[in-house]
Amino acid sequence: MLKIEIDTDRYTVGEIKEFLIEVIEFFELTASNLPFEEVYAPVFPHHIRLDNDTCREILNTIKYKIEDNFYHYLKGIEEYVLYHILDFVWEGTEHTFETETLTIPTLIDIIFEDIDFLDIGRLVELYQKNPKIVTDFFNVDLEQYKEIMPPDILEIYVSVKQKPKQQRETLTIEDLIDATLQLLNKFQQLIRYKKWNTFIEVGQEKELQTLFLPIAEEHFKNLDVTVIPEGETGRGTVDFCITKGYRLRVFVEFKLSSHNSFQNGIKYQLITYLLAQECKYGIFVLFALDTQSLERETELIELAKEINKLYNKQIQVKVIDARKNLKSASKIKEFNDI
Question: Which among 138, 159, 110, 157 is positioned nearest to 12, based on CA atoms?
């Protein structure tokens, strides 16, 4: 059985084990009726999808660790695969695969303490710039995720790891921006893959801010970085100021796409806050509630470039897919629908 912690009496470890076995058996039954590349391959990292033997070996190991009576921990690659199997079954059954007490999203919350394995590419990028940010700040051990990395990314990681330790002891503004973007990536994963988009209602930006704040505080807990919600600028309140002293500050402004003129969040609102506080760096975050607004990312990036050039600022744009009615896995036909 997997080594997990349960803080409720609504279900037992045995019930979780039985439900996990049912999910895996359902997945295998579905896969047995289709070509390997249509079901099995999509739950594995791209670089091993064509290696049938390796894929089956990983799946068999996961099954053994679930079914065995001893407690086991999952390796990084096993976490990745099990997560995608759970997500595949939940989406493929259109959110109907459940028991009286357990659903697949509940399993995901119980089994996975974090979901760093979904963002290894970004973490390796950060590791290249400053290994200490990943190891000491995010508390991520990339060693356990080496099997998830494609060969070229693994080569980069190994080369950086083998260099003499010449890590920067102080945080730079670039580090703070990277860390904030990493935080937004994590928040995006929670919204999309842990179904937090169900909490988002039209016009309810306050709800988003409430969800985001504890995640941000946990994210920055190992560094002397402060997350200030609704920081006063003298020209209104910016949603979040992420700061380590006056010199290192990043303003973050949220907008739901349900706003009639959400682009004004960049054009007038965020830039006004930055100018009022003589802060150079900002991130505009659009939560796209529909496909039309999701497709306006390029337009917003170009608008930010114009504003940056005009006012000598550095505003970045992050668009988060917060649509509620995503296609189920069985209906996905394009990469962008994943």
Answer: 110
CA-closest candidate to residue 238, choices 252, 220, 217:
252
The per-residue DSSP string of 258-326 comes to TSTTTTHIIIIIIHHHHHHTT--EEEEEEEE-SHHHHTTHHHHHHHHHHHHHHHT-EEEEEEEE--S-P
- Report which of 254, 258, 241, 273 is spatially closest to residue 208, judged by C-alpha positions: 254
* Domain CATH for 285: 3.40.1350
Residues 108 and 212 in one domain: no
57-64 long-range contacts, Cβ below 8 Å, gap at least 24? 62/24, 63/21, 63/24
Residue 30's nearest CA partner among 329, 314, 327 is 329
d(CA 52, CA 41): 8
Q: Is the pLDDT of residue 245 over 60?
A: yes
Residue 228, strand partner residues: 241
Of 113, 101, 105, 114, which Cα lies nearest the Cα of 14? 101
- Given the structure tokens 């409430």, which residue do they identify? 210
Q: Find the range with the poorest average confidence among 10-14, 99-103, 289-293.
A: 10-14
Counting residues of the chain whose pLDDT is more than 90, the rounded percentage is 31
Provide the residue range defining the domain that includes 91: 13-113
Task: Work out the mean pLDDT of the chain and round it to a whole number.
Answer: 84
In a domain, 1, yes or no: no
pTM across the whole model: 0.61
186-237: per-residue pLDDT in tens?
888 877 766 665 556 555 677 788 888 998 988 887 777 889 988 777 787 8
Q: Which of 33, 45, 23 is nearest to 93 (CA)?
A: 23
136 falls within a domain = yes
